[in-house]
Amino acid sequence: MSLPRTGPPSPAAPAMPRPRRRRPGAVLVVESVAVFMVMLDNLAMNNALPDIGRDLTVGVGGLEWVVASYTLVLAAFLLPGSIVGERLGRRRLFLAGLAAFTLGSALGATADSWATLVTGRIVQGVGGAALLPSSAALLRQVFPEDATRARALGLRGAASGLGLALGPVIGGPLVERFGWHSVLFINVPIGVCLLLFGAFFLPYAPPCRSRPWDLPGQALAAVGVGGLIFALIQGPSEGWTDPAVLAGFTAAGVALPALLAVEARAEEPMIDLSFFRDRLCAVAALAGFSTSLALFGAIFFLSLYLQYILGWSPAGAGLVFLLASAFIVVTGPVAGRLSVRWSAFRPLLIGVTLCPLVLAGLASYGEHARYAEYCWVLPVIGVCVSLTFVPVNVIVVQRVRGRRAGMATAIAETLRELGGVTGVAALGAVLNSRMRDSFLRQAEAVLPADQAHALADRALAHGPAAALAGPGAGAVRRWFHTAFLDGLHAALYTGAVGTAVVAVCTYLMVRTPAAAPADEPGGLVRPTA
């Protein structure tokens, strides 16, 4: 595939050096593999969580931070990353983000404490936040035609969804054969190779220094989102009235409304609120958020369920997700073609409708479920991913053009990542709260109240191994399994109701034709598909 000819170069203008960097296919491969690796690490650690809990002595709340520290930082820095890419050059930022992601992977791979592991995950998140918006912008530069751009972004979206689904598949066997550190170490040689190929093939993207920094918006977004996620994760273990938890909710309650007010008045905002005034862009962003919430929550909980309750090995638990991955491979390109040939909202509506079905389906199984009974959920997950993420990318690119395109892509990516971290944090809060109540109810039937509370605290704070030692371990194990299932079902049903509401809202917002926004340089444009 080659770029369209633009005519012979002017005699006064020298030919572009390094023509190999203008090979669209090579650029697409480098960026798709990089995006795949970044998205893979959203969920690749999930099947390692029980081993991490045992090795580092952390409970469900600490394990949530192993996942959330990556997705939270990734979400918090995506929008600033789009601004940095415009000012410093997208090629330069893509390579810098890839280098930071590789460095964070190396730090996590050598971690011998929970704090070091979380620090490595934070560095990974910063690198991923720099890489993702830059990759989308570079693809728009390399593929200028609508049809080829839509197909390229569809493949990038499929690589993103495939990375999410393959995370547990790849992570499980690595954990069982080489230990949980290997899940992070495998990124290091891949990252180095991508850096070499990227430096050779990626096209030059000149910086655009006209857009100023939006420091108040960046600070308010980080404080608001960070405070909310912190409170949701720490609330069940520390107590909802704990001063730190209340401080987190207070920070979110103050910072997030202030963010909207600041961005509405800013001359060059980090979050252009006109993106959400375009109803079709708002629908796409909402669909990406809710699908990530369902997907991250389902895979996070399913990984723990398979190992804690059903007794699967990490490799076996990872292979359970192979069927979902296969359906992403098959349906991803199909979703891209459908989005180009017909309206992208048709596959999108199907995708968001499948989300509550996935969560409610998982909630119907208990302690003795067999693979043959729940395997139907896995292809539904794969179809859901492809029919949502790919159309979302296409819709945003078609609706927003020019210099705001990077910002719009970053908003969509940010909301998708926020959906993931919210799925783990909010549904995890439901799980932990219900789990604690169920555990206490069983323990208090045979133990004094103070002993029952101490046992529950150990199980939630330091993992089940801390609460299952000593005499009576069999009874405590049964209490833990019952409590975990009670919390799991409550979390999944809560997510199913929430995503069902989003699916209905999406249908209602799409069925009424939207007024086409005016074509203007750098702004929103009429959709072409």
What can you see in these coordinates?
This protein has 529 residues and is an all-alpha fold. It contains 21 helices and no strands. The longest helix is centred in the last third of the chain and has 39 residues, at 405-443. The chain starts with 23 loop residues before the first helix and ends in an 18-residue tail after the last helix. Mean pLDDT is 77; it is low at 1-21 and 516-529.
List descriptors.
disordered C terminus, EmrB-like, 77% helix, 21 helices, 529 residues, disordered N terminus, mainly alpha
The gist of it:
The chain has 529 residues and is mainly α. It has helices at 24-43, 49-56, 60-88, 90-109, 114-142, 146-178, 181-185, 187-201, 215-238, 243-265, 274-277, 279-309, 314-320, 322-341, 345-362, 371-374, 377-399, 405-443, 449-462, 464-467, 473-511. The chain has 21 helices and no strands.
